[in-house]
């Protein structure tokens, strides 16, 4: 994806310590699928000027994690455009919300 976008430098973040350490060569990957991903990353590194992967706390990755899960859920769709809209105020006025328990 980065290469398709014409990136020459790639800075990526992950909340997975295992993944970051495997990509950075600190841990050895044992699963066949992870070994294949690492091979693709190594190939990408030869085609761009710089590649950097940094671990971030899971709490800081909530938005990205939510978007990735949504994108995965839509993998069979022809288009995977996801629009994120930030609301400055609720769509439903909070004055109208009430729970009445008797």
UniProtKB/TrEMBL annotation:
Domain RNase H type-1: 2-70
InterPro entries with a match to the protein in the record: RNaseH-like_sf (IPR012337), RNaseH_domain (IPR002156), RNaseH_sf (IPR036397)
Pfam families: RVT_3 (PF13456)
Lineage: Eukaryota, Viridiplantae, Streptophyta, Embryophyta, Tracheophyta
Descriptive protein name: RNase H type-1 domain-containing protein
Stored SUPFAM superfamilies: Ribonuclease H-like (SSF53098)
UniProt source species: Sesamum latifolium
GO terms, molecular function: nucleic acid binding; RNA-DNA hybrid ribonuclease activity
């Amino acid at each position: 994806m980065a290469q398709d976008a014409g990136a020459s430098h790639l800075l990526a973040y992950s909340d997975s310590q295992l993944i970051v350490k495997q990509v950075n060569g600190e841990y050895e990957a044992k699963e066949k699928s992870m070994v294949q991903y690492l091979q693709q990353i190594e190939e990408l590194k030869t085609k761009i000027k710089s590649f950097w992967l940094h671990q971030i706390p899971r709490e800081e990755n909530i938005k990205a994690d939510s978007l990735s899960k949504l994108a995965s859920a839509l993998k069979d769709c022809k288009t995977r455009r996801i629009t994120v809209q930030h609301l400055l105020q609720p769509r439903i006025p909070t004055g109208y919300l009430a729970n009445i328990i008797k």
